[in-house]
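Please predict the structure of the following assembly.
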Amino acid sequence: MKEVIIGLEVHVQLNKLRSKLFCSCSTQYHDSEPDTHTCPVCLGLPGALPVTNGKAVDNAIKVALALNCNIEEWTMFYRKNYYYPDLVKGFQISQYDYPIATNGSISLDTEDGERAIRIKRVHMEEDPGRLVHVGTIDKSKYSLIDYNRSGVALLEVVTEPDLRTPKEARLFLNKLKNILEYLDVFDSSLEGSLRVDANVSIAGGKRAEIKNISSYKGVEKALLFEIVRQNNLVRRGVKVVQETRHFDEVRGITISLRTKEGEEDYRYFPEPDLVPITIRDRVDDIKKTLPELPDAKRQRFALQYGISDNHAKVLISELGLANFFETVATEVDANLSATWIADVLKGELNYRDLDISAFSPAHMVQILQMLKKDTITEKGAVQVIRTLLDEGGTPSEIVKRKGLLKIAADVSENAVFEVLAENPAAVQDYHDGKDEALNFLVGQVMKKTRGRADPRTVSKLLKEKLQNAPDNHREA
Amino acid sequence: MNVDGLREMLQSGKSAEELLHSIFDKIERSKLNAFVTLAKESALEEARRADKHGAKGMLGGIPIGIKDSISTKGIQTTCCSKILEGYIPPYDAHVIERLKAEGAIIIGKTNMDEFAMGTSTETSCFGPTRNPWDLNRVPGGSSGGSAAAVAGGEIPLALGSDTGGSVRCPASFCGVVGLKPTYGSVSRYGLIAYANSLEQIGPFAGNVKDVALLLDAISGYDPRDSTSVAKKCEYLKELRDDVSDVKIGVPKEFFGEGIDEKVEKAVWSGITALEDGGASYTEISLPHTKYSLAAYYIIAMSEASSNLARFDGLRYGLRLGKDKDWHTTFSEIKAQGFGEEVKRRILLGTYALSAGYYGKYYLKALKVRTLIKRDFESALKDTNVLITPTMPFPAFKIGEKMGEPLALYLADVNTVPINLAGVPSISVPCGFAGKLPIGMQIIGRHFDEATILRTAYAFERGMT
């Protein structure tokens, strides 16, 4: 495999804003009737004028700061002229020269260690409307257009070609999403909230741009397909041409849209209806509002709570999860919390496709306290978590209802004596050096105690008794 | 017909409804073709309301005509282009909201050059407007309908828009007063854009006082226009018959080649009259004037090519019936909907912005614009106003210049630099060439409409 070079252009909706980029229309249009969140400005009606949403600029600056970018002294908007039915004015208000920020970077935890992925620029633009087709775009007899999305603030994050594998591209997007959600400017769960153009080439060859991929998995899949396609071409001695391709999410393939990229001429020129915006003077105030970002949190977790880096990595991957951990860790042992939240709870949530908000930190604290006090077994704790997720209730009530209370040591001890007496063959096997006999005996004790004994204690007890017990056969 | 006179009439018993009936009668019998759409029903309704509850606001019960490029809720607004046939805006322009709040009655939409591109009101899809002083001549453009309606006594007040002289030129040709305010002093919200960075909505009236009144009504800050600025004073209150403190600058470049002798003479006698009233004058120079036409047309056409892209018949305006694929449908609608002059400017503007030409044309034009702005700033440092002819010649005959677009562009030579600089400028009648009126242009400092209105007012009083 030859060296692969990948660059991304990521369009994210600043969808935590309450109004659009150039008008006061609401952005809460999901699940609404088409065209119900529109006004003369976002419909581009003759005579309507844009006015920049200051909050959108502030959010963009926030993101740029979080991506370690250089914030410019001032910024301005340009018109990008092109025809498309979803574009109400025949041009999109975007940025060209003088974008809001340049030269940033994101540190990425790749397979060969930490690496900085450089960010070329970050700029603002307006979202067009949305085309809706009956069936697929090429089969549909007509296009319907919903203008609710028209004018929503987009942020375009452009990387340098620093990514090397489709997996890295996916990691990058996850990291970016993570940062945007920490900043509280982005909700990734909303449809159309993220769209990616991916540029990819293999060593020495021309690059292909895959346009408008709308999912994180899609980006990885499209790149994988594209790399295989380009490698096959090279192997057959065919030159890769520079072109724009479309990713067909259903079939998982990329299709050529047009060759000779750069044939469009957008005729950029400064948007005369918007005056340049001075931004440098806002930066200090915005810096003060920046929350702790994922990388910093990961370091702090390891330092402050003494948990493993792997646990910290999982815990910071979602702001909600990180906050959940901190709430729990202040009440009970931090390492125990980290293990149970990152390894067990997260797994159970993923299995059910649930969010951390589905689980109460107070319940987690109760469960961990029971574990700590040895009143339930680890197995019992897992069962409590599952029951809480599937049926609801409270931990203590579930423990009672399901009979999960760990039984006292003497009860276990009695059970051990009984099992040893009832299974002489297994005892013999153990003495003959067959280790699996111990597992069998543990199983029998657990069965006798209906699972309420702690298997580790049982195993310890069994070993003690087996060693102390006279080895009749050998004596004989 | 002036506002004071009408107000007296309304106060002495004539109802606003009666007044409107007589105005509509006059317009319908008129040969001027100044109005393209009449809003009879809504206007009469407003008038009846005013009659019942009493006229309110500084323009209570006063009828006004609106250039067809300004959006009026519920009244067809077409920019006199076929492509906007049947378009009824769902919202009012900022100036319309202000006029309504001041009690003015919108009686209809006035004729104009298609998309405000022209100097003669001949490119309208509704046919040309005629000059009230000579029906065979043009009223000037592009706000010719508004100027002719006021000059012809059909209405006391009208609004136009001025991108490169489109208020002042027809004011000059029709013998009325027309003002292009400082860029930013009147909100452009709702004005259908031709060239955003140059144009301003401006008032027309038969006299300076009414222009000041109308400017008071429409100017001021509007949060929906980023370039909008809060206003400095009440213009009507600033009017007084005294110019003893006014220093006039006379830029020699504006009296150059191609200026009609009678025009030059009339303007000079205007300056002399002001001098007699106590003003002083010096000759000055605006050295970059010769580049202004080229810079203006590059900027205006570039912006226009982008502004007019939205007219595709998809959601409003012209429809051709059978739809084909996107590009074919858009192309056919544009081919049929836009007139020749509009197409010419879209093509030139598109070319000027194209890759490789942007730096050569558009950016260079912006640089020239900066130089011209500086010319005005330095000239107006030692003077309060500049005085020039508004148009180099009086109204020409209908059809006379239609075949020579370039020659027609040259007619804007005295008005265009003002839009590039963004300063305010007023045209007042200052004499006649035969039976055709001549306009004198008084240019002021940024946001100093008060001084040019006062100078025009004093001049007008001295003349009558």
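The two ends of chain A are 69 Å apart (CA to CA). DSSP finds 16 helices and 16 strands in chain A.
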